[in-house]
Design brief:
The complex is a heterodimer of chains A (518) and B (236).
Chain A (H helix, E strand, L loop, with lengths): L1 H14 L1 H46 L6 E5 L17 E5 L27 H16 L4 H6 L1 H5 L6 H34 L6 H31 L3 H54 L11 H4 L8 E2 L4 E2 L9 H43 L4 H13 L3 H25 L5 H4 L11 H8 L3 H12 L23 H31 L5
Antiparallel strand pairs in A: 1-2, 3-4
Helix pairs in contact in A: 1-6, 2-3, 2-6, 3-6, 3-7, 3-8, 6-7, 7-8, 7-11, 7-16, 8-10, 10-12
Chain B lengths: L1 E9 L5 E10 L3 E7 L5 H9 L6 E6 L2 E2 L4 H6 L1 E4 L11 H11 L6 H10 L16 H15 L3 E5 L7 H16 L3 E6 L2 H7 L2 E6 L2 E7 H4 L4 H12 L1
Parallel strand pairs in B: 3-8, 3-9, 6-7, 7-8
Antiparallel strand pairs in B: 1-2, 1-4, 4-5, 9-10
Helix pairs in contact in B: 3-4, 3-5
The chains are: A mainly alpha (518), B alpha/beta (236).
């Protein structure tokens, strides 16, 4: 009998004009989001290929020269076409010579890891409206039938009250679940046809878990809609109540968080950390200023600074480059000593300050995630980044991996002695007379790219080649999460959803047992 | 057989809507419950149907007690209200199919269609949505639904209200045939004329009490209208 009831409820919804237009609107949104995401995914793939190529070239260079960048490249996340998760941490790199990770910033505009490529993002439409969509088709599910009187007739049949209310919930749930699942499966299918490299177990597992959580989300909101329908006497009232609940969850609470709660609870502390971080950064930068090198230890005259260009502002970050004449080898050696003895410790302090700041940000984000668990946008973004292995915590883990490798290289370089070997940092020019520093400056106009090209002349000289093994950079590619790992990640969500669903069901059951059907 | 034993209902606001009502309607019998608005007719039907619980007393149909087996009791009764309530987005046929399935019966299309034709629904309306039906047509679908539930007891709440004379006549004949098949028919009405004409027993309610209970033989030469008014005045 329950099957007949659920089918009837679904048919009833299908025949409703209001529901029909809601579904049409939802599907149009879905198609629009999907199209934008596919286009965006293509550009992400192109960027990924370019990053990978660059990383490989860097490694090639690193075998001969100290200017090393370690890359943590993440593959674009395809199923996150329904969220904003893939935008985070496309590439994390550590410049061996410049260990401060300048790319970590609180400012989303300048932070590569949080760089939002697509400002005009319509993904939020799905996450924003899915809950409204469910509430709009369920708000009059019970009191609507009471108003038309069909509830009375049904109650003269041997139908338990629980069965009737379950029919309503499951009917709405199945209907919305189908309305979501069909375009979801079709869009995944299209993506797989376009990008055959997606055919991995991890991809399907992620897609499956994402789908499972969305179904729980739909079920929860179906229950909420039915509860509203039982609580309000007439459909018009429950419509008002529904809109209020939705506005509260989706707009009022997040705004109050951003403007009232968050500054009170976290921003003061965060500001202190930020100041601390900026102090340390300035301190670290100052060490590198050429004037600061004019000390007893690093005598400007002895250093023959005119022949060494240690820092070049590339417009993006400080690029260290050295080119070699016979006279500068000693300075290079001293310079490297300076880097190892003073610059690294200073930069590590900055790293620690940044980490502290970053962890604070994560903890704020975590608070927000729990406070707004049922806020659709926060929930979807959080869920999907967790499943994709692309959350802030994941990023921090990647970063730590990269730093560990850098430290490993430094320690090895010191132990094996090659880190302070001038041959490793600068090469003697045998094939070409470079002339004076002024000549070089004029010739290259301080362009770091050209400077680099020029340095390559020395690097390619087989007489001074110096090679060592680097760890495999592929370690940094996006993790392929196993079933167990993914399950552990979604377990808190599953538990909260199940708890929420059971609680709502108990409330509905108790209220509907006493519900006046007349 | 429908048996009501000392049925009372006191609402939360203290209003005693039904005061120890007892009556019995046998098979092959039409019972008409007369009463003014607020007399307790609707409360009686609401309790029998299970819409509201009684404060005390019980209802029994064919040995099944409302207090013990409320769901099973519902299998034994069909309910038809003054304004037949159906799903407006569905056709008359689809409504009939759904409620028949709800009653646990899977009837084929021919049987469902022939029932609708039998109760007088125009064939070309059968597959149109209820929203396009007149009140009389809705009533007919409601009757078909009640018929196909195939129960021993029929509860009718103002069943003739809003029906045109022809439809009312047809419905009356249908109720006679149901009675002759052995069904128990319990109807609440304001219509004294039709109560006298149709009912084997007429009950008169005022202020939640059954104040009069007259058989057809007792009413044969009596003025039911006057009896009804006398009871009401006496009570007042």
């Amino acid at each position: 009998m329950l099957k007949a009831l659920i089918l009837h409820e679904m048919q009833n919804l299908l025949k409703s004009k209001r529901v029909y237009w809601t579904v049409v609107l939802f599907l149009l949104l879905f198609a629009a989001v999907f199209t934008v995401r596919v286009i965006n995914y293509q550009s992400q793939i192109n960027q990924y290929i370019a990053d990978k190529k660059m990383a490989e070239e860097e490694l090639q260079n690193a075998a001969n020269y100290s200017h090393i960048k370690l890359y943590a490249i993440q593959q674009p996340l395809v199923f996150s076409i329904y969220n904003q998760g893939y935008k985070a941490s496309r590439v994390a790199f550590i410049q061996f010579y410049e260990p401060i990770l300048k790319t970590i910033s609180l400012n989303e505009e300048t932070n590569l890891y949080y760089n939002r490529d697509n400002k005009l993002d319509i993904t939020f439409l799905i996450t924003f409206f899915l809950s409204l969509f469910i509430l709009l088709i369920s708000y009059d599910s019970i009191n609507g039938e009471k108003q038309t009187g069909t509830l009375r007739i049904i109650m003269t049949y041997p139908v338990k009250r629980q069965s009737f209310v379950l029919k309503k919930i499951l009917g709405i749930f199945c209907f919305v679940a189908l309305a979501f699942t069909l375009p979801y499966v079709i869009s995944l299918f299209i993506l797989i046809i376009i990008y055959t490299n997606l055919l991995t177990a991890s991809f399907f597992l992620s897609a499956f878990f994402y789908w499972l959580l969305i179904l729980l989300f739909i079920f929860f909101f179906s229950l909420l809609g039915v509860l509203i329908s039982i609580s309000a006497k007439i459909p018009n009232r429950s419509l008002v109540f529904t809109l209020f609940i939705w506005l509260l969850l989706s707009i009022i609470l997040p705004i109050s968080w951003e403007f009232i709660l968050s500054p009170q609870l976290f921003h003061n502390e965060l500001n202190k950390l930020t100041l601390n971080y900026e102090d340390k950064l300035d301190q670290s930068k100052r060490i590198f200023y050429l004037n600061d090198l004019n000390t007893d230890k690093y005598d400007k005259e002895k250093l023959n600074i005119n022949l060494v260009s240690h820092l070049v502002w590339s417009g993006y970050f400080y690029n260290s480059s050295v080119w070699g004449f016979d006279e500068t080898y000693d300075q290079h050696y001293r310079f490297m000593q300076y880097v190892i003895d003073e610059y690294y410790p200073a930069s590590r302090e900055v790293e620690q300050a940044i980490d502290k700041l970053y962890r604070k940000q994560i903890s704020i984000q975590n608070y927000k995630n729990w406070v707004f668990f049922f806020n659709p946008i926060v929930l979807f973004e959080n869920m999907s980044t967790k499943i994709a292995g692309n959350s802030q915590t994941d990023y921090l883990r990647h970063l730590q991996d990269a730093r560990d490798i850098r430290d490993d290289i430094v320690n090895r370089g010191l132990d094996e002695g090659w880190l302070k070997d001038y041959r490793y940092f600068a090469r003697r020019a045998e094939s070409e007379n470079l002339g004076s520093y002024d000549d070089i400056s004029k010739k290259f106009n301080y362009d770091p790219e050209k400077t680099w090209d020029y340095i390559m002349v020395f690097i390619n000289d087989p007489k001074v080649s110096f090679a060592f093994e680097l760890p495999d950079y592929r370690k940094y590619s996006q993790p392929q999460l196993s079933f167990g790992e993914l399950f552990n990640r979604i377990l808190p969500y599953l538990l909260i959803f199940v708890f929420g669903i059971i609680t709502l069901w108990i409330i509905i059951w108790r209220r509907f047992m006493k519900y006046d059907v007349r | 057989m429908l048996k009501i034993t000392e049925l009372s209902k006191r609402y939360e606001d203290g209003n005693l809507a039904l005061d120890t009502l007892s009556l019995e309607v046998k098979s092959n019998e039409i019972f008409a419950l007369l009463g003014a608005n607020g007399a307790g007719k609707s409360t009686t039907i609401n309790i029998i149907c299970g819409f509201i619980p009684p404060s005390s007393g019980d209802v029994e149909i064919d040995g099944i007690l409302l207090s013990k087996e409320p769901l099973k009791l519902r299998e034994k009764l069909a309910y038809l209200s003054e304004n037949v309530m159906l799903y407006d987005n569905f056709t008359g046929y689809q409504n009939l199919k759904f409620f028949t399935e709800l009653a646990g019966r899977n009837l084929d299309k021919d049987k469902l269609e022939s029932t609708l034709i039998k109760i007088g629904l125009q064939e070309d309306f059968m597959h149109k949505t209820i929203a396009k039906y007149s009140k009389g047509m809705r009533q007919k679908v409601g009757i078909a639904i009640a018929l196909l539930k195939d129960t021993p007891v029929f509860l009718l709440d103002e069943p003739f209200s809003g029906l045109d004379p022809k439809a009312a006549y047809d419905f009356q004949q249908l109720l006679y045939s149901l009675r002759d098949e052995g069904k128990t028919i319990f109807m609440s009405t304001h219509d004294i004329f039709r109560a006298k004409e149709m009912a084997d027993t007429v009950g008169i309610m005022t202020a939640g009490k059954l104040v009069g209970n007259k058989t057809k033989a007792e009413l044969e030469n009596a003025d039911l209208n006057q009896i009804y008014l006398d009871y009401i005045e006496e009570r007042q």
